[in-house]
Amino acid sequence: RDRSWTGARVHALQLCPQVLAEKRSLGSRDGPPHLVVLVPLHSRAAAHDTLRLLQSQDSAVVRVDEGRAGGFALLCPRLKQRWRFVTAQAGDLHAVLDLAKVADSLLFILDPADGWDSAGEHCLSCLFTQGLPSYALAVPGGTDLPPKKRIDARKKLAKAIEKRFPEAKLFPLNTEQESSLLLRHLATQKQRHLAFRDRRAHLLAYAAEFVPGRESDLVGTLKVSGFVRGQTLNVNSLVHIVGHGDFQMSQVDAPPDPLTLNPRVVKGQKRSQDMEVQDDSLNGTDEMEEDVKVLMKADPNKQESLQSEVVPDPMEGEQTWPTEEELQEAEASLKANRRVVKVPKGTSKYQAAWIVDDGEEGDQEDDDDEDDDIDDDMMEEAVSQEGESSEEEEEPAEEECETMTISECLRDDQYDEKVEEDEQMLERYKQERMDEMFPDEVDTPRDVPARVRFQKYRGLKSFRTSPWDPKENLPRDYARIFQFQDFSRTRKHLFRQIEKEETEGASVGWYVTLHVCNVPVSVMESFREGKPLVLFSLLPHEQKMSVLNFLVCRHPSNSEPVRAKEELIFHCGFRRFRASPLFSQHTSADKHKLERFLRLDAALVVTVYAPITFPPASVLLFKQRSNGMHDLIATGSLLSVDPDRIVIKRLVLSGHPFKIFTKMAVVRYMFFNREDVMWFKPVELRTKWGRRGHIKEPLGTHGHMKCHFDGQLKSQDTVLLNLYKRVFPKWTYDPHVPEPVPWVRSESALPVQEVEME
């Protein structure tokens, strides 16, 4: 016990210098500025008053305006600290999530009366799932209320935030002294780490410039300037521009730091207007240094490739001409398998192969029990009686059936005309309800033989233990993806390299300019409109396509039916894309049953084609409405990158017992012709009351069949036959996600407690 305590103490002492160095570097001269993102959570939240109070500090703090609305920096040479404040646009969910990916601290601006409204509640739900960095709660205003009502409003607000922020402290923000206390809290609070960004270099663009290419003005080189965060940035690695895709870099420059703590360096600088600082107006520019030092240039031999898919070879699966060794082996096997048979004169070799010796013929007679013989006699009599009665009444039944079919079609057409507007939504709710009541049950078609309609399905003795080869009958899309021999081992090896080995490149805290190649001009237009420009460096293999599996739970704010293979919007770690997923059960077995709808009461696994991402990484699933709004439907995390995960679709055909005997029964309505009964004869049967059995033989030509069970059936029981087929997701990956329409705000929202992902 003493040794273990001593070892833990030594380990803690070793970590203390690292933690202290990390804390001291943030916001200091050698580290990046402390990035604080202001997030207003209410339509009446006074974000402008907060900015004004933070700017009006004492004379020791130097303010540097960035030229954009709501963006500025605070420099304090006396405390050797520097901050950069950025305000997220109200109602822009993508901007809030992108800024939270790179922010050191989030400053939530609350309303003194209601705290946050419905849009703020939606924003908090997304931020908690994506991963919340260090945060603080500020409440500006409230001075116009009487002292008694002000105290009551503060108590009400403190009680409301207990569920969302149990350990948070409210900071009133009405005077310069209170703003100084808030700055001190932001500088000294413990930093919360997000795993998906701590292992990758990332930066928020401070300035950007677009240089059109020689061939086209729509594609060119984007020069992005900002402070490196997270890890060392290597010029040979790929970068991902959030919301736009993956790109290569040609070189990395080192311009002078625009937020230096030494004012003498600022006075002696020569400036130009080559770079454009983010501004809400198109004329906002910022002067940058002419004297720029080139840190490194990309090496074509070491640079990561942008290839995301495998180019399949159509001739790869073709059979080649056999070699001489294979021909000799085949001839030797033919000699070994030859046998001498007496045949009549004139018999060919093909005819001789079908002649069977007397010794090979055997008696193949089945011995039945006495109960089976008695049941067979009784069933033959019952079926013969039924056949005689059906032959006598065959013609009138056909006439009645024909007239009824015409009348039903007329009524269906009239009914469909009346409910044409609500048909789609009602059909979804009906399908979801039917799937809950009768899971996986389908009706056997009358116009198509069952052996043709379900020819891709198979029967299994046991869904849990029966084997299924993961490489069997793969689709063509699997020839385009990448697969790891051991994904977990590769992940551990990469993370170990990041922790131990030193990477050449721009270190954390450097102010650099990245030359990103072949970037569309739409990226620069988005930056000019005021959207944040966020870049992440990619780990090896993260640009390649594979099959990703996410473990998600349904969000309580949405209960509309979501069917499998519907297009959804994914926010996975630092990526944002659209795809059509599959839903399956989360079990420890090697096969997982497909779910047709996203369940409300269970955790499911979502499977899509997407670029490789190394976990841990959070995921948010959105569904786009017809009016452009994005509804949060599910949250979770990345489970694995595994194309061999088998998702099985189950179909259940149902039949009803017509004649019941001791252990035998005549079942009808499962099939409607004799050939289908013979085709599915090897598949095991089961009932809803737990009986198991098999098909013995068909009876007649209308799909009736004689079945044997392990016990006597009940009259109200249902006979079931399970069929299985492996399914794969659709290749609908699209990295370009349309901007959502701002969320409709209401005055207040009840807080819902959720699990925070880190």
Describe the structure.
- Mean pLDDT is 79; it is low at 1-15, 264-289, 359-371, 386-412 and 748-758.
- The protein is an alpha+beta fold.
- It is flat and about 110 Å long.
- The chain has 17 helices and 34 strands.
- It is 28% helix and 26% strand.
- Among the domains are: 21-193, P-loop containing nucleotide triphosphate hydrolases (Rossmann fold); 194-260 and 292-310 and 506-541, Elongation Factor Tu (Ef-tu), domain 3 (Beta Barrel); 441-462 and 648-726, Beta Barrel (Thrombin, subunit H), CATH 2.40.10.
- The protein has a seven-stranded mixed sheet with strand order 2-3-4-1-5-6-7, sandwiched between helices.
Give a short summary of the structure.
Helix content is 28%, strand content 26%. By secondary structure, it is α+β, with helices and mostly antiparallel strands.
Largest sheet: 7 strands, mixed
CATH level 1 name of the domain at 21-193: Alpha Beta
User: Alpha-carbon distance between the termini?
Assistant: 32 Å
Can you say what the CATH homologous superfamily of the domain at 21-193 is?
A: P-loop containing nucleotide triphosphate hydrolases
Level of helix content?
25-40%
Average pLDDT confidence is 79
Given the helix and strand composition, which structural class is it? Answer: alpha+beta
Total helical elements? 17
**What is the oligomer described by this structure?**
single chain
Ordered list of secondary-structure elements with their pairings:
Elements: H1 2-25, E1 34-40, H2 47-55, E2 62-65, E3 71-76, E4 81-87, H3 93-102, E5 105-109, H4 118-130, E6 134-140, H5 147-164, E7 170-173, H6 176-188, H7 195-198, E8 202-204, E9 207-212, E10 219-227, E11 239-241, E12 245-247, E13 249-254, H8 263-267, E14 271-272, E15 276-277, E16 288-289, E17 293-297, H9 324-336, H10 349-353, H11 370-392, H12 394-418, H13 423-437, E18 441-442, H14 450-453, H15 487-500, E19 511-520, H16 521-528, E20 534-537, E21 545-554, E22 568-572, E23 575-579, E24 582-585, E25 591-595, E26 604-611, E27 618-624, E28 630-641, E29 646-660, E30 664-668, H17 674-679, E31 685-687, E32 692-699, E33 704-709, E34 719-726
